[in-house]
Amino acid sequence: MVRGIAGRRKRYVEVEVEFLADGLIVPRAVIWHDGRRFPVRAVLGRRRCASLKVGGEGVRYDVVVGRSRTFLFHEDPRWFVEEVVPETAPDDGSGAWGDAADAVDAAAYGACGMRADGGSAGDRADLAAPYPLE
Question: What are the backbone angles phi and psi of residue 102, rounded to the nearest 5°?
Answer without folding.
Answer: -60, -40
